[in-house]
Amino acid sequence: QNVMDTAMKNNRKIAAAQLLVDQAIIERKSTFEPDKTLLKLGADQNNLAENGYPLYVFGIEQGIDFPGLYAARRHAFEINIAIAETKLKLDKYDMKKQVSIAYFHYQLLLNKLSVYSTLDSLFAVLQQKTEIQSQYEDVNYLEVLNIRAKRNQLSLRLDALRKDTDNAYRLLQSLMNYKKDFSISDSLKPLPHLQVSYDTFPVFQLFEFQKKHNNALIRIEKNKAAPDFTLEYFLGTNTYDDAKYYQGFEIGVAIPLFFGSHQANIKSAKISSNSYEMESEFQIGQLLNKIAEL
Question: What tens digit of pLDDT does each residue of 50-99 get?
Fold first, then answer.
């Protein structure tokens, strides 16, 4: 458990996935993103005040998208957060799998190393005994050579096991992103049986969230084709005698007259959604077949 906790805490891949979740949460704040506010100053010889002099007009103008677009964008950002969180879960599951495999592989090698070390010690004693007996002709010298050959084979296997054990140790250390030396128990225990509902697997949830995200993108493109609004307030005056302040405002509606590009974007988003849905159905079928084989 300590090994797993250390890996979850220190692993860079998990940390990177968590940053993507934080990024998605921050991006949600950009839901309401109107155009830049326009400040204007103008003068027109034809626009005269009551004192007979031209007005200097100060104005402020703000464009606002169709309200439904902001709602659609916020919905898409919410789904983006869910996608990022689901990918984080998948990365954690994958890391747990890798750490578990590396941990038990290292344990297995430690046990094999212990067994082969014991056998090597036994063969050393046996070799010494047979060599002494051969001096008194109690044992055939061919038997001595046979034991030497077997011990040499065992020594080679033991050296290879030591290298494999060192490699397994370094792999586990890298997954944990832990620089200090550590040790684990060499006691092998069976894994507990997990009762898991496959429909709650993050990978299936990810497919579903991605479908919703594609539908949200279609909704965004449709709202982009809706009218936008423009609000303007202005104040006019001049610096001559008897000058007054003249206020005014304008409200405008921007109506798209050319729908070709909007329709193309909507169709493109729909095609992309349909393509992903077909691909996800195939991948889900493949996953369900693999699960059925377990």
Answer: 998 999 999 999 999 999 999 999 999 999 999 999 999 999 988 888 88
Amino acid of residue 224 = K
Two structure tokens written together for 220? 């965004």
Query: How far is Cα 94 from Cα 82, in angstroms, rounded to an integer?
Result: 18
Q: List, in sequence order, the alpha helices (H) in the chain.
A: 2-10, 12-27, 67-135, 141-176, 202-224, 260-293
pLDDT in tens, 268-280: 999 999 998 898 8
Q: Which two tokens stand for residue 267?
A: 């169709």
Instruction: Please work out, in degrees rounded to the nearest 5, the angle formed at the alpha carbon of residue 197 by the alpha carbons of 92 and 203.
Output: 45
Residue 44 belongs to what H/E stretch?
strand 38-48
Residue 29 per-residue DSSP state:
G
- Bridge partners of residue 40, in order along the sequence: 59
Please count the other Cβ atoms lying within 10 Å of the Cβ belonging to residue 68.
14
- Which residue has 């084979």 as its token pair? 153
Distance, CA of 191 to CA of 186 (rounded, Å): 15
- Residue 96, beta-bridge partner list: none
Q: What is the pTM of this model?
A: 0.75
Angle at CA 43, nearest 5°, toward 38 and 45?
150
3-state SS assignment for residue 271:
helix
- Other CB atoms within 10 Å distance of the CB of residue 8: 15
Tell me the CA distances in angstroms from 254 to 27, 32, 56, 133, one per residue in order. 27, 18, 27, 107
Contacts of 249 (CB under 8 A, 6+ apart): 231, 232, 233, 234
Q: How far is CA 101 from CA 92, 195, 232, in A?
A: 14, 20, 65
pLDDT tens track for 155-191? 888 899 999 999 999 998 888 888 887 777 766 565 5
Q: Cα torsion for 181, 187, 188, 194, to the nearest 10°?
A: -80
